[in-house]
Amino acid sequence: MDWDLVLGIARFVVATTLLLLLTIPTAFIIIQMELKVIALMQLRYGPNRVGPKGMFQSTIHGFKVLAKEDVTPDLVDRPTFTLAPWMVFMAAAMSMLVIPFAPGLVAFESSISVVYFFAILGLSVVGLLVAGWASYNKYSLLGGLRSAAQMVSYEIPLTLSIVGVVVLTGSLSFTQIIEWQLQHGWAVIWQLVGFPIFFIAATAEINRTPFDMVEADSEIVAGFATEYSGMRFGFFFFAEYVSLFIMSAITVTLFFGGWLAPWPFPAQLEGFIGTLYGLFWFFLKTYLFVFVAVWMRATLPRVRVDQLMGLAWKVLLPVALLNLLVTGVAVVVFNLSGVQ
Amino acid sequence: MTAVDPETRVPDPIELDRAEEARLHAALGVDLPPRPGDEYAGFDTVGIPDRPPQTEREAEIYTLDEGEMLVNMGPQHPSTHGVMRLVVKVRGEVVVDLDPVLGYLHRGIEKLCENATYTTVLTYVDPMDYLSSMHNEHAPAIAFEKLYGIRAPKRAEYIRALVVELNRVFSHGLMMGFLALDMGGLTPILYGFINRDETVELLSAISGQRMLFNFFRVGGVNWDVSDEFISRLSSWRSNVGRSIGDNEALITENEIFTARTKGMGVLSGERAIALGVSGPNLRASGVPFDVRKAHPYSIYHELEFEVITHSAGDVYARYLQRIAEIKQSLHLIDQIVDQMPHGPVQAQVPGIIRPKPGRAFGAVESPRGLYSVYAISDGGPNPYRFRMRDPSFISLQVMPVLMPGHLIADTMAIMASLDPIMGGVDK
Amino acid sequence: MDDLRRPGSPASRLGRRRALTAPAVAGALVRALTDRFPELAGTLWTDEDTVEVQIDGARSVEVLSRLRDDPELHFWYLADAAAADYGVGEHFEVVYHLYSDLHPAWLRVRARVDRSSPHLPSITGLWEGAMFHEREMFDMMGIIFDGNRDLRRIYMSPDYRSFPQRRDFLLPDDAADSSAAGVNPLERPETWDLSRFSEEVAHSIDPILPLGTSAMAPGPEAAEIEADETDADKSRPR
Predict the structure, then answer these.
(1) Interface ipTM
(2) CATH (domain of B182)
(3) What is the mean pLDDT of the segment spanning B234-259?
(4) Does C195 touch chain B (CB under 8 A)?
């Protein structure tokens, strides 16, 4: 019996289960942050009754969504209607498999994790399209098409800015990118143009303000998720917050050193303490970016859909290409690339 | 999924409606004409009425060309203006035509006031344009005083001007919030409400109410203003710049906001005059018409201020116009507090006044425009005819003129910039 | 509690109004009006800040366009267009208020409209913004504006059958006609009779309530309504 294989499978199953379980409190924490942080920015209290300082509000929201009636219109295409939220959520959950939380703490170690990540990201677009179409409602269809167009347009500058990092570090694996950053400093210093492009494109990719035309509540209806209620609807918004976490995690991994500590502190430590140390810094940095995204939601109005598309194609894409060009030239000229 | 037994299934209410309708038709022997759009199975045909169009314009808007679609916005809006239904004809995302459907908030106030004494009328008009209640009361007070042949004392006029300008400050502050909210900015509306809360606390110190003030009387105002109030006013005055400034800092220079509002919904001066637009909307299109300067009422001829205009006539200009008017109102409040004389605040009038038969017209400048009252008296205790002209009602005609060519997303922005209040629109 | 003290000081009756503007200034308007419209000189009336003239309804467009286009009068802004009902046997009146920057007074133009044939030319050709005014006057008072492209009800629902602001509008009749009294419009054959929307009938008022009927002389409808007495009927003053 190949114990290595069995152990490997067992490890994978445990890791995946833990990750799936991790998504739940993550989403709850992020929702709670949104409620409370936005409230404080708007000079009001926010939830402060459920639990100490209102901490359990989002948890109760989660359970409430479970308990709601699932109203499904008669004429929807049932298999696809049911499948769409699963697709969107699976895209989010599966992309969590490759995120390096701490040294040695990756569910799925691979040398092409960047490619894997972006492949899985595309799956959520399919999920949204299917949701819009299966709802048998012309507004949902329009909303689904609009959001698909938005996500597809922004994937290109997103990918191009990451290719800049890939060219710089010479590797397609998240862990190796972090190790490159251990030796050369955080990639954000090297990719001063690439990081903003990535950040903007990532915000648009997950449909967060200012690019949340999709879920704009002062537009006609709620977009692709109009006909969804109860837990199906819960899945969509669960998936949105999980992908916010994931995008922040990827930002941190690619540009801000992943689990590495900033300058005055030792970058990483050894052994079990090292794992905890890396975990701490990883989560701190990730939640900092989540906070920035929530802050943007409180502050900024929404970009109109044609301006959104214009931004992606006419501004971000050329700048990302330029960034890639300059990075490539610099790497060749200064011989920067390569880890080992 | 559990299978549902068709025999014992509880029918859906929409099925009951359809079945009942069919039964009625069968009973009456009447054939219902096929609904237009029934040929598109499963797609709802929202907005198309199930009767032939009655007028030329109705035919124009409810006839769909190839590729056009009717979208219903309202009457329950996520937007804050009240209950109104906009039937928008779109081709893709671009609006081709628009028809506002009103009357959801119609309360018959004009007719109601024919059975009320003149003082009671002043309480009935408060909830018309509920964000500028003081202006709603001011115009009838002017008209009734003309009918009765009386003047309010000087101090009363100053207090009237004071509360009216306070009302203008918070109404315009809220409009900033509504405009941002309709574009997705969640925070400015809350800052606007903080400003409103502070202002309304002041007004409740004078009138006893936070919203529907019931402060004006024929011949003056109801309560006097004390020195303690004046000191509260001055501390409010030093705070209000900050809360408006917070809002401004969030919105005015924001790239996203300006990209969405500049050049949007441009209304030229001549068109605005032809459409009957008044107030900040008209002045933002370059026409310097302000009732306070045009036909001064109350003590406005003693106060020093200029008529502010902007020339662009777009959404951004209307927004800037209101900010400028807030600052102008603060300047006016300063002058009023400086110049307020002592004296009585209400002329001696009987409880039920019976003016001589006649007609009177009283017009004021409300935050939405020219708000006027035309009253006819027949010598009895109730007005014979009480007519209110609400500026938001007339400004709504601008929508079908401005909207075509813009995207649906701009509908809300343009409407928020016109700042209609449905209470006034529907009376 | 000073600010809650009622104004107890004996302010004597403040007497008649003083004119806001010196008569000579508004006099320019009066002179200009009598020059251009000598036939209206008899009906001219002034107030401290309003000048009023009365015209016959059929001339409204002509008079208003001259008021607007004459360089000395220059009444370019329509402030208000209102309707008044002077009683059951009496006429209607449509009242326009105009603003000019050359004169310190509002101009009120009262146009008399016959009750039996309440037609008036529409001024939407002069001011586009009169559309909603005219729709409201049609809806509430039943005055028909000839030439208005969109004369339909604005506040009431399109199949509403009476005109609320008329003096002969009785609320109990309206209540007896409503769903609260158990009336289901779907059960009425006339709701399904679409011929009432045909061309020649479309612009006459209320074919169900014949012209000239008032509730004093009960028409065929009123008899039906009084047959079953609703609660609203019992509250109507007899």
Answers:
(1) 0.85
(2) 1.10.645.10
(3) 88
(4) no
